TrEMBL record:
Pfam families: Calx-beta (PF03160). This is Calx-beta domain-containing protein. SUPFAM superfamilies: CalX-like. InterPro entries: ADGRV1, CalX-like_sf, Calx_beta. One of its GO terms (molecular function) is G protein-coupled receptor activity. It comes from Candidatus Synechococcus spongiarum 142. One of its GO terms (cellular component) is membrane. The keyword Signal applies. PANTHER family: ADHESION G-PROTEIN COUPLED RECEPTOR V1. The keyword Calcium applies. Keywords: Calcium, Repeat, Signal. Residues 58-127, 224-274, 587-637, 802-856, 1024-1125 form the Calx-beta domain.
């Protein structure tokens, strides 16, 4: 049996009046909460004649037109959900700058009729509350109400119009407009304008900062020159992009003191002047992310490919927020270039631009390298014009910080230069640190042997708890070389490595002083006749300048080139210890001697060689330049010089096959000859087809003598290996050393690697991944082209699985490039995408993943893959919904705005309906600091702020107040804005508005001087005074007392400042303008000279806000304090002996020195 309810709900309608420019609302209230969905059809009318309204319009009113208001709610239906009591139908009263009567709106509820029924024709479920306001018109069928819009315009304000000046203009020229006030204003009047342009065909002639609202122009007063009229200009950009002509439009905006007339908008046409034949240049990122130390690559493309090569300019920048720094300074900035090959050249239309990244040891956030196209000649910058590659950090933040300092300096040549390498904190295990040694040789000085210079030097720092923990000494031997030369410098620089971070200072220098007699003669060496034939004597001239007072014996080293198997000098004539004597000043041949080296005349066919003599240092002379000389020695064997050829049996083979080479000697030798053949291969891409023994030892070929079978021709073979490794094709090269003759054969790889694809499902708001796994580690670069697609019809893929729909483009975002590259050695790669969180209750969504190119067929798909694999190279990706349809809707509204700095900005957060239990809502706080203003402490900004909304039935149910404290900082600055934005979380849905703003007004005197602080001398030694200079700009009109806070670095247990000298509330007084020392004061902090061995420390003085001044930048300064205690001094302690003792006995104490002195 059906039981019919006979109760009716009562509906109350209220329409508060509004003024132009305000948002109004029709407020609908039930006398009890709805127990089921209740829907009402509503309409807000304008454009009616007064005669259509019973009784006509009331005195002083007229009916609003359609342009006088706009309805803000999309539907003409109001629905009360179960539990709802109140609904609002919102509209905006438009501001028209016209002086007019109060305007009427007519709100109606259709379908009520005389029975008041609004649910269906057969029921009377709701009646209108008869206690409705007086603007309810009972004579008008009972379902119509008046709404009132009050005028806000002053009839005495001047009328403002705008007209364009000559049109069109050419890009790069200014568009001008005339703004006129009628009548001319009694005082100068500022008029607000908005600038826009037509970009419908991608044309763009106005810079973004010249567009938008809030532009102004000032119209002179009636008594001033040019009264009543002003010119407003908009600069246009003369770019290099061919584009359609455009239009710049300036529109008058409403404001106080004037009325916007007609025309209220004016337009100037802007003509393009660029060559449409220039190619369009775009840029896309390569592999991203990369690890620091790897190059970031970008592809620059010209469409169409240019008829001649085009040089494109780029600017390189990086994201350094958070202290990250992955690009060297020299690789940043503008003026970088890349050349795109012409249409008829290899690689036509495309070029790769690379940016080297720095593989440091600093733990830092991941960074981004950005390459942006710059305008230039012969091309047009297209879109995308900028590309970004992410650079991931690979360092450990727990590593100790390594620094280096110089030991005693200067040292004399021959003494060792010492350096102290320190780890802070001392490492838990011994750490080996890499260093590079260099020296200054700009003036010819040389004190360090080349074997002791360069990188990859090491020193080991002992672990915590070991003797000398945290510190090691590194030494560089210097040479006492007998050369008179300028003093030099030896520099040791820390290099990056594992298990530590390079700190500052990272480099230290020791001066090396020369100790030679400048009166010693300078010895030089020059070669004699060259070339010579083997068997002849090689000669060198040794010269002393000036000629010595007594004969001088000069020492030399003799060496020769034997790399091609040649050998012309007997071993006892080579090496060090060779010498020659130069006659004295008063002797025949004074100052010059001839040094000779005998060569061997053998019967070996060999390449030409070189004999080199090099001067050796001595205390009796100085080695000058040239200090070395070389003579060529030619071979004189085999005058027939036979002609050799070498040919492979095929230009290419498959791996595992044997390569045969034929060697021909013409004429054939008189006796059989065996030659050594060298074998090499190209392994630059990791490929390897020839056994290492064959490469290192080579092979031989025998040429039969003339008159023998096969005279003059011999063959040899090189076997290749058939491995199971997928690798690049290789090249095997064989060379006959004596003729430099070679032949090359390509070895083709026959292996393929398998690829497995997996796509775990994700939920909205999460980051998903397509996971690629190779069956074997890549031995060469392997690239696959991929795509992740939405916006497809289910019918296009043969139907979607039950309970799913295809995702749209707004449901996800791909985070990687459109290709995946495996570097040699890699097995796994990931294509990442974000599943966007939309707060919409919906089905599981599908993405379609596709591989379009498997490295030109060199990869096989592994079909042991999850069930979501489709035919061929297509896969499904699933995005699960995370929204609850029963969650309350959360909105936010500002409380009174503006507030004064120092007052809290308050916001009201509302849940509709009120939650069944207390609900915590997440919020993000931000502020506008674009003009340097700052009213909110950083700790109060950012995401993750929260407020709790009381549950239904609790006091304040459904609403909570969130406050943001602002700071009264003493700084004169522009007004600012504090914005609070709702963040997604569990248990609720974000509604509209989701973000609101409160204005914060500055209350500081702009005439206050700005105070800054700088450090005095740094470092100072403990026991000394740290000084700081505090400056007021401009100097104050009367003396100003400035507050400061003092702190120090005690992170390594150092302590140089007494506690009563630390903390806030310290002061210094700056003298007034006209007084001695006007505008500047010195602030001092005494340090403690103790006997404790401790690391260097830092004392920091920071300005605090106060009265009569503003804190400027820098607001903080630091002075380093050095310890002056000898770490080698023993540590003295005292302990009591026998205790107690009886009076008359001796009291004893043990005083201990550690270590024993």
């Amino acid at each position: 049996m059906t039981v019919e309810d006979d109760d009716t709900a009562m509906l109350k309608v209220e329409i508060p009046p509004v003024s132009e420019r305000e948002i109004g609302g029709v407020q609908l209230t039930l006398n009890q909460a709805a127990t089921r969905p209740i829907t009402i059809d509503v309409t807000l009318h304008g454009t009616l004649a007064c005669r259509w309204i019973p009784g006509g319009c009331s005195e002083g009113t007229s009916v609003a037109s359609g342009s006088d208001f706009s309805v803000l709610d999309d539907s003409n239906k109001i629905t009360f959900a179960p539990g709802d009591i109140t609904k609002t139908y919102r509209f905006k009263a438009n501001d028209d700058n016209t002086v007019e009567l109060t305007e009427l709106l007519l709100f109606s509820i259709s379908g009520l009729g005389l029975s008041w029924s609004i649910l269906d024709p057969d029921s009377s479920e709701i009646i209108v509350d008869p206690s409705t306001p007086l603007d309810y018109d009972d004579a008008f069928s009972g379902s119509y109400w008046f709404g009132y819009i009050y005028d806000n315009d002053n009839p005495n304000n001047p009328n403002i119009t705008i007209t364009p000046d000559p049109s069109p203009v050419t890009e790069g020229e200014a568009a001008t407009f005339t703004v006129t006030a009628t009548p001319a204003p009694t005082s100068a009047m500022m008029v607000s304008l908005a600038v826009s342009e037509d970009t419908s065909d991608d044309q763009n002639f106005v810079a973004s900062d010249n567009e938008g609202s809030g532009k102004t122009v000032t119209i002179p007063a009636a008594s001033s020159p040019g009264a009543g009229s002003a010119t407003f200009t908009v600069d246009t950009v003369g770019d290099t992009i061919p584009e359609p002509s455009g239009e710049v439009t300036v529109t008058l905006e409403t404001n106080t003191g004037y009325v916007v007339g007609k025309p209220s908008s004016a337009t100037v046409t802007v003509n393009d002047d660029d060559d449409p034949d220039n190619p369009n240049v775009t840029i896309t990122p390569g592999l991203s992310p990369v690890k620091e130390g790897e190059a970031a690559t970008f592809t620059v493309t010209a469409t169409p490919a240019p008829s001649a090569a085009v040089t494109v300019s780029l600017v390189v920048s990086e994201d350094t927020s958070g202290g990250r720094d992955v690009v060297a300074i020299g690789n940043e900035g503008n003026g970088k270039t890349v050349t795109i090959p012409a249409a008829d050249s290899p690689g036509a239309g495309t070029a790769t631009f690379t940016v080297a990244t720095v593989g440091d040891t600093t733990s830092e956030p991941s960074g981004e390298v950005i390459a942006t196209l710059e305008t230039g000649t012969g091309y047009t910058v297209g879109a995308p014009s900028s590309a970004t590659v992410t650079v991931n950090d690979d360092d450990n933040p727990n590593n100790p910080n390594i620094t280096i300092t110089a030991g005693s300096s200067p040292v004399s040549e021959g003494e060792a230069a010492t350096f102290t390498v320190t780890a802070t904190p001392a490492p838990s295990a011994a750490v080996t640190v890499s260093l590079a040694v260099s020296e200054a040789t700009s003036d010819g000085q040389d004190f360090v042997a080349s074997s002791n210079e360069g990188g990859a030097k090491t020193v080991t720092i002992p672990a915590l708890g070991s003797p000398g923990a945290g510190t090691a000494t590194f030494t560089v031997d210097t040479e006492d070389n007998g050369t008179d030369e300028p003093n030099g410098e030896v520099t040791v620089t820390l290099e990056t490595g594992t298990d530590y971070t390079v700190g500052a200072p990272s480099s230290a220098t020791v001066t090396v002083e020369d100790d030679e007699d400048p009166n010693n003669p300078k010895i030089t060496l020059t070669p004699g006749l060259s070339p010579l034939t083997e068997g002849e004597t090689v000669t060198f001239t040794v010269t002393a300048t000036p000629a010595p007072a007594s004969a001088v014996r000069v020492f030399l080293t003799v060496s020769e080139v034997t790399s091609g198997g040649q050998d012309f000098v007997a071993s006892d004539n080579e090496g060090s210890g060779q010498n020659v004597t130069i006659p004295a000043l008063d002797s025949p041949g004074a100052g010059t001697a001839t040094f000779t080296v005998s060569t061997v005349d053998d019967t070996t066919i060999e390449p030409s060689g070189e004999v080199t003599a090099t001067l050796v240092n001595s205390a009796d002379y100085v080695v000058g330049t040239p200090s070395s000389a070389t003579v060529t020695v030619d071979d004189n064997d085999d005058p027939n010089n036979p002609n050799f050829t070498i040919r492979p049996s095929s230009s290419s083979v498959r791996e595992g096959e044997v390569i045969t080479f034929t060697v021909t000697q013409a004429p054939a030798p008189t006796s059989g000859q065996t030659y050594i053949i060298s074998v090499s291969e190209d392994t630059s891409g990791g490929q390897d087809f020839v056994a290492s023994g064959i490469e290192s030892g080579g092979t031989t070929v025998t040429i039969p003598a003339a008159g023998s079978p096969g005279a003059g021709t011999g063959t040899f073979t090189v076997a290749t290996e058939n491995d199971s490794i997928d690798e690049l094709n290789g090249e095997v090269t064989v060379t006959l050393p004596y003729s430099s003759l070679s032949a090359m054969v390509t070895v083709e790889d026959n292996d393929k690697v398998t690829l497995k694809v997996e796509i775990p499902p994700v939920s909205e708001g999460e980051t998903g991944s397509v996971q690629f796994t190779l069956g074997d580690a890549a031995t060469r670069p392997i690239t696959i082209d991929v795509s992740l697609t939405g916006d497809l019809a289910c019918s296009a893929i043969g139907g979607c699985p039950e309970g799913t729909t295809m995702a749209s483009g707004s449901d996800f975002r791909v985070l990687n490039a459109s290709s995946i590259t495996f570097a040699p050695g890699e097995t796994n790669k990931v294509l990442r995408f974000t599943a966007n969180d939309d707060n919409t209750v919906e089905s599981t969504e599908l993405l379609l993943f596709h591989i379009s190119d498997l490295d030109s067929g060199e990869i096989l798909l592994d079909f042991n893959t999850p069930p979501d694999h489709l035919l061929g190279s297509y896969w499904f990706a699933y995005i699960h919904d995370n929204d609850n349809p029963n969650n309350p809707n959360i909105t936010i509204a500002p409380d009174p705005s503006p507030v004064i700095e120092g007052e809290a900005a308050t916001f009201t957060v509302t849940a509709t309906p009120a939650p069944t239990w207390a609900l915590t809502v997440s919020l993000a706080v931000s502020e506008d600091t674009s003009d340097g203003q700052d009213f909110v402490a950083s700790s109060n900004e950012g995401i993750g702020k929260m407020v709790t909304i009381p549950a239904a039935g609790s006091p304040g149910a459904g609403t909570a107040t969130f406050t943001v404290d602002t700071e009264d900082d003493g700084i004169d600055e522009l007004n600012g804005e504090v914005t609070v934005t709702l963040e997604t979380s569990t248990g609720y849905t974000i509604g509209d508005p989701s973000s609101v703003t409160v204005m914060v007004e500055d209350d500081d005197d702009p005439n206050n001087p700005k105070i800054t602080i700088t450090p005095g001398p740094s470092p100072v030694t403990e026991g000394g005074t740290a000084t700081f200079t505090v400056t007021a700009a401009p100097a104050p009109t009367s003396a100003v007392t400035v507050s400061l806070a003092v702190s120090e670095d005690t992170s390594s247990s150092q302590d140089f400042v007494a506690t009563d000298n630390e903390g806030s509330g310290k002061t210094v007084t700056i003298p007034a303008a006209g007084s001695p020392g006007a505008g500047t004061a010195t602030f001092t902090v005494d340090t403690v000279g103790d006997t404790t061995i401790e690391p260097a420390g830092e004392v920091t003085a920071t300005l605090e806000a106060g009265t009569g001044y503003a804190v400027g930048t820098p607001s903080s300064a630091m002075v380093t304090i050095n310890d002056n205690d000898d770490p080698n001094n023993p540590n003295i302690t005292i302990t009591p002996g026998l205790s107690p003792v009886t009076e008359g006995e001796t009291a004893t104490f043990m005083v201990t020195a550690t270590p024993a002195p």
